[in-house]
Specification:
Layout: E1 2-4, E2 11-14, E3 21-23, E4 36-44, E5 52-56, E6 65-70, E7 75-81, E8 85-89, E9 101-107, E10 111-116, E11 119-125, E12 137-139, E13 152-160, H1 166-174, E14 183-187, E15 205-208, E16 211-213, E17 221-223
Length: 224
């Protein structure tokens, strides 16, 4: 992959005190049958916020998947719900404050993993297909628009309906637009539109709009 210029790099600034969130709608394209990879660049603030980065979940039992932090203890969690809930939860202090980190979660039908800068920081056994739900996918909170708010910057978030291997995850970390195969949602998050540039139409609308920030992660637009 060759980095090129010409695309804006920035982020959206989510405030847990508001809280800010972006609703991506209820499309079933964001609930794969089983395999899933979820990634986003984040720069979180130090707070007691529980910190949903992006999730397809409500506050009850209808929860297919969730990628979140636990800011007070600096943990990151990737959770999936099949016949039961299983979360891969890192140790304390694995998820640093005030710096850009590439946060991912993936599930392959046998194992759930949480990763920071492509290092696996937690794993857990889980089997089965993801639960279905009629609730929205959101950045910044659960589907009620207020629970588990995130505090900090989020940029260039993506969801794939397959498990990216380690080499592909490194490509995803370096390149804002790769890999493309299996991509079901892609939000650059450098303005308030939260446009889904994957082509699947999962465009965001503000529940309570985060502000724009010129601060962005160290990543580029790439061509093969």
């Amino acid at each position: 992959m060759i980095p090129v210029n010409g695309y804006s790099v920035g982020s959206m600034d989510f405030e847990s005190s508001v809280p800010n969130s972006i609703d991506l709608g209820t499309s079933t394209t964001l609930v794969p049958t089983r395999d899933i990879t979820v990634c986003a660049w984040t720069n979180k603030e130090s707070s007691s916020s529980s910190g949903i980065i992006i999730a397809r979940m409500d506050t009850g039992a209808s929860r297919p998947w969730m990628l979140r932090g636990q800011a007070s203890v600096k943990k990151v969690r990737m959770c999936v719900w099949t016949s039961s809930e299983v979360c891969a939860t890192s140790a304390n202090n694995a998820y640093p404050d005030s710096t850009w980190v590439f946060v991912c979660g993936r599930y392959d039908g046998s194992n759930v993993e949480a990763l920071i800068d492509n290092s696996v920081v937690a794993s857990a056994s889980q089997t089965g297909n993801l639960n279905s739900t009629t609730h929205s996918t959101l950045f910044g909170t659960a589907s009620d628009g207020s629970s588990l708010p995130f505090d900090g910057l989020i940029s260039n978030a993506r969801v794939w309906d397959r498990v990216l291997d380690d080499t592909e995850l490194e490509t995803a970390r370096r390149c804002r637009n790769q890999p493309q195969r299996g991509l079901i949602g892609h939000w650059q998050l450098y303005d308030n539109t939260a446009l889904d540039i994957s082509g699947n139409g999962n465009n965001g609308s503000c529940v309570s709009c985060p502000s724009n920030s010129a601060d962005g992660p160290p990543t580029a637009w790439c061509v093969e």
